[in-house]
Structure formats: structure tokens, C-alpha cells
Amino acid sequence: MIGGTRSLLGNVVNDRTMMLLERGLDMSSMRHSAVSNNIANANTPGYKRRDVPFETVMREAASGGFTESDGMRGLERVMNVDSGRINRNDGNNVDIDYEMTLLAENSVIYNALARQLSQKISLLRTVITEGRR
Amino acid sequence: MPIVGPIISHTEMRQVGRSDWPGRVENGAGAEIGGAESFNSYLKGAIDEINTLQRDADAATRAMATGDVSDIHRAVIAGEKATLAMQLVIEVRNKVIEAYQEIMRMQI
Amino acid sequence: MRLFRAMDASASGLTAERLRLDVIAGNLANANTTRTPDGGAYVRRMPVFESRESGIFGPFFQAFSSAMGEQRGVQVSAIVTDDRPGKTKYEPGHPDAGPDGYVRMPNVDVVTEMVDMVSATRGYEANVTAINASKQMAMRALDIGRG
Predict the structure, then answer these.
(1) Does C145 sit within 8 Å of B72, measured CB to CB?
(2) Within a domain: residue C36?
(3) Host H or E run for residue B83
């Protein structure tokens, strides 16, 4: 796999920041998926909302918790079922306002991460191709 | 390795890879590899990495084309990485050939 | 289950809420229907929502301790009748009045239906927002590296 210490490409193309950003995008994507599903099931009796513990995972990722080989597979583990919060009569614990807020917030995070990644890639591209002189 | 074949098969590149080529080579991290053979194997290593990146990008593209677009950002990033890696190796190759030509000109 | 599947989930939510609105509309329209082809007063209908999970327990989910299928949104698994009896109204002159002069009215409570309608509308709009967010995020992802 790419990223060994003696690998030139690994250091350029797969450095820490890049991986962190990618991981962040993965998490954001998963959270969006969970929230969308919560919203779709906002009126389903007995449904319990799902979420990903974003902050915990990102902290883990920042300290080197995930390896490249984990891919998305490792992340499926982290989606959990939130059985707390106030239940309605029908056992459903989805608060649609909360989910909408989460949706908006997550959207911004995703865009921010994508933009950071974009800038990093542009920078790399500039550095690589401008050497041609 | 159809895509990256031309990079190594260039005659000058082969010259550089010969064991009797003078001079020492340093890799990106600044450590001396020592000798042209190391450069050759370094390049081959880099090509392999590009291959992996290309394969990942191809797989992601195929997934997108067949409609299994689960991870669109993954596909885009894989494509970008593969392109960057390719560009990097091409630039390195160009520089090495330039350097080689410089040196060849110096000999009388 | 990522961006596009999230869109599927939201789409299923749209379908479900829309169906619910249809059922509610039917109930409201028949709030005073004392005669149906099946005989008797109109019986209130209710959609049954069920979360849709594909039970794909492939390599992806082997690490799961709790069995959790892949989420696919929601579906209306059935439309059932509400079997609670409706009110009776004393109106001896009514063509559908019984021998005791009472008319069996449908068990549709307009207030309940209106509340449900608001909830369904809100749910529908929320799903629309979610789909827009999905689309916007996907478009943004496509622009990675191009910015």
C-alpha cells in the first residue's frame, strides 16, 4: 500500500493532512446518510435514530487511529443507534428539528472539508507542474 | 504497465539506469541511495505506486459508471491522486533526463 | 450507504409522506360518509410506516455486534383500517339512521387528521431539504481538485 516511509509518492499524495481530510469527508458522508434516514423515518413507529460519533472518530483519526487499509469498511462500525432522548407515544425518538439542524451543520462541514482538500490538491499540482521551467 | 511503459523505455532513461552511469542519486527524503541501480529501482517503485493509484481510480470510476455511486468523493479523490502521482513521476523523469543530457554534453 | 443512497432514503420518505397525505385527504373527504359500498359508515384508514432495511449481512457488517441492516429509508407496508367505532348521532330523519334513530358516523376526527397532515407536510419538506443537501454535497465533491 502506498505510504511507506521510503515512498516518495506516499509522502506527497497520502500525507497526514490529506488522509485526515479524506477521513473527515467519509465521516461527514456517513453522518449525512444517517440523518437522511432519520428524516425519512421521522414518523415510523418504534424507529430509533442513528448517528455517527463524528468528533470521537475524528479525534481518533487525527492521532493516527485509522490506517489507509481500513477504507470505508472500518467506518461502518461506528454508526450507532441512539436509543436515548425523548420518546413519543409510538416509540420513535426522532426530533425532526434536531435532524434538520444536523443536516445543515453537516453540509457546511462537508463543503469545508471538500474545499480544503481541493486547495491542497491544487497546491500539489502547482508545485509539481511549475517545477517545469 | 501499458500507460507508464514509455517512461521507462525511453532510451535515455535506460542509459541513466545503467550500472556504469557515474554519479550518486538522492531520493526525495534526502538520503543517499548510492548508484544508478537504486535510482532504477526507485523509479520502478514509484511506477508501481502509480499503478496502484491508477487501479484504485479505475475501480472507483467503474463503480461510478455502473451506478454504484456510494462514495463519490472517494472516486474523485482517487482520480486526482492518480493524476498527481503521474504528473510527479513525469516531472521527475524529465528532470533526470535533463540532468543526464547536461552531463552528456559536458563529456568531450 | 452514502450520498446517493441517502438520496434514495430521502426519496422513500417523500413517497411515504405523500401517501400519508393521500390517506389523510381520503379520510377528510369521507368524514361524513355514512354509506359505503361495503355497507355502513366510512372507516378511517391509516398508513403503516416501516423502516426499510436490506438485511445484507455481507463482509461489510461482520464487525457488527448488534444486527443492523443497511438503511434504505422508509416504506408504507400497509394501509390498515382503524377499527374503533365512530360516534353516533341522533338524527331520526336521516336515511341511514338505525331503528333507534341514531346514525353511525365515520370514526374520522377532523382535528386528528389536520394534525397528521401538518406532520406529514413537515416531513415531506424535511425530506426535500435532505435531497437538496445530498445533491449539493455531491456536486461539491465533483469539484474537488478543480477549485
Answers:
(1) no
(2) no
(3) helix B72-106
pTM: 0.77
Closest CA to C54 of C12, C85, C23: C12
Domain with C57, as residue range(s), is 3-31+45-81+108-142
C11: in domain: yes
Would you call C145 an interface residue with chain B, using a CB distance cutoff of 8 Å?
yes
Question: How close A63 comes to chain C (CA, Å)?
Answer: 22
User: What dihedral angle (degrees, nearest 10) is formed by the CA atoms of C67, C72, C78, C80?
Assistant: 80
Phi and psi of B22, rounded to 5°? Answer: -75, 160
Any A CB within 8 A of C38 CB: no
**What is residue C49's three-state secondary structure?**
strand
- Does the residue C21 lie in any domain? yes
**Residue C29 CB neighbour total at 10 angstroms:** 11
Number of separate domains in chain C: 1
In a domain? residue A43: yes
Note whether residue C97 is domain-resident. Answer: no
Quote helix, strand, coil % in chain B, to nearest 5: 70, 0, 25
For chain A, how many structural domains are there in total?
1
Instruction: Tell how strand C70-81 and strand C45-54 pair up.
Output: antiparallel
Backbone φ and ψ for C105, nearest 5 degrees, come out as -90, 160
Q: Which of C1, C141, C145 sits opposite B72 (nearest CB)?
A: C141
For C61-68, the CB contacts below 8 A with 24+ separation are C61/A76, C63/A76, C63/A77, C64/A76, C64/A77, C66/A81, C68/A79, C68/A81
Please list the pLDDT of chain B residue by residue as tens digits (108 residues). 444 455 555 555 555 555 454 554 444 444 444 455 677 777 788 788 888 888 888 887 787 777 665 678 888 888 888 888 888 888 888 888 888 888 888 876
Structural domain span for residue A117 = 16-130
This model of the complex carries an ipTM of 0.82
| Cα–Cα distance measured from residue B46 to residue A2, given in angstroms and rounded to the nearest whole number | 10
Quick one: cell of C1?
A: 450507504
The three-state secondary structure class of C73 is strand
In chain C, the residue whose alpha carbon lies closest to the alpha carbon of B74 is C141
DSSP letter at B30 equals: S
Tell me how close the Cα of C6 comes to any Cα of chain B, in angstroms: 9
